Amino acid sequence: MDATDLRIALFSGNYNYVRDGANQALNRLVGYLLRQGAAVRVYSPTVDNPDFEPTGDLIHVPALALPGRAEYRAPIRLPGRVRRDIAQFAPNIFHIASPEILGHRALSLARSWNVPAIASVHTRFETYPRYYGLTFLEPLLVAILRRFYRRCDAIFAPSESMAQILREQRMSYDVGIWSRGIDRDIFDPRHRDLGWRQGHGIADDEVVIGFVGRLVMEKGLDVYSDAIDSLERRQVRHRVLVIGEGPARDWFEKRLPQGVFVGFQKGPDLGRAVASLDMLFNPSVTETFGNVTLEAMAAGLPVIAAKATGSESLVEDGVTGRLIRPGAIEAFADALQHYCENKGAREAAGAAGCAASERYGWDQVNQALVDGYLRVIRQRAEGVQGPPRSPVP
């Protein structure tokens, strides 16, 4: 059996209607699978004006806008017409990319049809409540996630640090790695553009601290702002440049009135914007991989990041940047000050990060997941039983 024998039903809560690292990885995966001769069918909510065109065949599933986050859709069921479409497609493996209602229904369907199912882990959902004053919900979310993931034949994390967290949380007995790749045509130090910086009022000799990502509170915007405030109090010369859009933009702009906000960027424009920074500051603890961290490294930037899943597998502390205890404002400020005031340190860390990023190619990481699909299917064919119907507590 090889990739041409694969028939993959892929279920996602957001395949293309809002652009983020997870759904871009899924679209790249589908493109790779189709080039290898596999058959793929994607089931996800859709909208009239998605952020980008989907790769492959996309089937709509019913969904409602999330309260307070209307840009996201919450799938509410797996209707009969979709079940019939799945049956006609006759998948030999289910890939579930989000543990919400659609994922649960798809997993139950796979179990009833005796079709193997794997899940990919894209974010640390259990950490989200802490950003909205609901920390007490975290143990409940962990229990719900554990029940879901243990019903899968295998789960795949994007980094070894995230895989270790999943093992410690007893999420699955079979945790593999599906990493993320980098488009080196887009993210490259050569795309640095001082003219572009000047157009945004930034002098050539000013040191720019960047933020790249969706502007939502769970990205650590409060920690970012507090660390920048500390630099201001220390009178460290710097500029802040924010790349991205999101519902928390107004809040972030008010917290950082001196910042330059350039909005959403994509493709070559994003590559130019990232390469035109002098460092990336990523205090988030919710990522399972950290696409923006890898992109910044490929662009030759030092990265100051929270010592958390994803970043721990990418950033080598003291070599390609700094890993700081989550929420440690003054320690973040110390690291930022070091790179603001030491051009040689910035250049050395950026060069080391660029070299380290070269081992992340999209075809290589996607082939690793293809190998995972084939392994899980082969195990079922050889009589290896799927996960227990009642998860072990």
Describe this structure in words.
The chain has 393 residues and is of the alpha/beta class. It folds into two domains: 3-181 and 361-381, Rossmann fold, CATH 3.40.50.2000; 189-357, Glycogen Phosphorylase B (Rossmann fold, 3-Layer(aba) Sandwich). The chain has helices spanning 21-35, 80-89, 101-113, 138-149, 160-168, 194-199, 221-234, 249-255, 267-275, 291-298, 311-314, 329-341, 343-357, 362-381, and strands spanning 7-11, 39-44, 57-60, 63-66, 69-75, 93-96, 117-120, 154-157, 175-177, 208-212, 239-243, 260-263, 279-282, 303-306, 321-324. Strands 3-2-1-6-7-8-9 form a seven-stranded parallel sheet, with helices on both faces. A six-stranded parallel sheet has the order 12-11-10-13-14-15, with helices on both faces. A two-stranded antiparallel sheet has the order 4-5. Strand 11 (239-243), helix 8 and strand 12 (260-263) form a beta-alpha-beta unit. It is globular and about 65 Å long. It starts with 6 loop residues before the first strand and ends in a 12-residue tail after the last helix. Residues 20-185 form the Glycosyltransferase subfamily 4-like N-terminal domain. InterPro entries: Glyco_trans_4-like_N, Glycosyltransferase_grp1. Keywords: Transferase.
